Amino acid sequence: MNDGGTVWLPESASTLAPTIDSLFYFVYWASVIIFAGVVIAMLYLIWKYRRESHADRMKLVEESRLIEATWIVLPTILVLVVFVWGFRAYIKVGVAPPDAYEIRVTGKQWLWEFEYPDGTSTTGELHVPVDRPVKLVMSSTDVLHSFFVPAFRVKHDVLPNRYTSVWFEATKEGTYKALCTEYCGASHSQMTANVTVQDQGEFESWLKSAGIPSDASPVERGKILYEQQGCNTCHSLDGSEGTGPTWKGLYGHDAQLADGSTVTADANYIRQSILKPGSQIAKGYQNIMPASYGSLSERELTGLVAFIKKQSEKGRAELKAAGATSDSTAAAAADSISTGDEQQQAPSGPPGAMPSAEASNQ
């Protein structure tokens, strides 16, 4: 078995991979042999009984019990071998060892979230120890997804309102790609995650330092959340087009909505757009932002608002006027924005439909 991958299969990096690969190659070579036998026999008969041939024609054979028995018994044996082999592999993949390290996986459009037993959570990045069984307990907040790590040969559907599980034991350190293999919407192809396999010591060190530092400033929190929550899947920071409008220059601009009205993209507008997506849609965009972001904490909301604010000249000027001189203080003013629904707020719209600066000029 080539652990480095072949033209047919990717790199093998788990204890389950050899079982799956062996069955694959058995079916593959059996198919090649059967195909070659059929083609060779067909070509031979075409040549032997070609029109120009003077070969004696054999008499019509009405029955051959040997041939009939052969094409019944041999395929039956082949199918039974594949069934038993495949069923044993299915049981092995489906039943996790009792001492497996358990990680919660949440699929949502269009990102993967991972929660560890100590409460640490990450988005788009899964870390696991090498040579230790890991069990993933998975669910979805919206539509059907499917979690697939090619190098580990594990794939399982992730369903809304229901838990499913899959396990693996990584055998080689490195970084591998996890994919969603069930079409789930506009950015399905971008719903990926990196799976990093580390030795036990490195994994424990990473686990202690993972997550958002408690002393991070609002802007720093927002930057981390921008990647962890998958905001970068739809919203760029450089002005380039995406599924959702860019955040560059968003704050402080008069944004045009799909109904023809105009709203100022201030801090309250951005905050409420995260909490209540779909109430107002930016011109030229569809309402595809999941409602799950409404579960963000107040601290996380403040960080995202501060980070979005820093992406526009007006926002940076306001922060500077408030006394901000660096990233560690640049978002201090953002902590003072209104956080209550009782205060007057601009109409809201989802970040999946938040207008860009360009839209405001239309």
Morphology call: elongated
By CATH's scheme, which homologous superfamily of the largest domain applies?
Cytochrome c-like domain
Structural class: alpha+beta
Looking at the overall shape, the CATH architecture of the largest domain is: Orthogonal Bundle
Enumerate the strands of the largest sheet in spatial order, edge to edge or round the barrel. 3-2-1-5-8
Outline the biggest β-sheet. Answer: 5 strands, mixed
* Amount of beta strand: 15-25%
Count of DSSP strands: 12
Distance between the amino and carboxyl termini: 60 Å
Tell me the name of the CATH class of the largest domain: Mainly Alpha
CATH topology of the largest domain: Cytochrome Bc1 Complex, Chain D, domain 2
Quick structural gist:
Helix content is 32%, strand content 17%.
Description:
This protein is of the alpha+beta class and 362 residues long. It folds into three domains: 17-94, no CATH class; 101-209, Cupredoxins -  blue copper proteins (Immunoglobulin-like), CATH 2.60.40; 218-361, Cytochrome c-like domain (Cytochrome Bc1 Complex, Chain D, domain 2, Orthogonal Bundle). It is 32% helix and 17% strand. The chain contains eight helices and twelve strands. The strands form three sheets. The protein has a five-stranded mixed β-sheet, with no helix packed on it. A five-stranded mixed β-sheet has the order 4-10-9-6-7. A hairpin with a 4-residue loop joins strand 6 (145-149) and strand 7. The longest helix has 32 residues, at 17-48. The radius of gyration is 29 Å and the shape is elongated. The termini are far apart. Mean pLDDT is 79; it is low at 324-362.
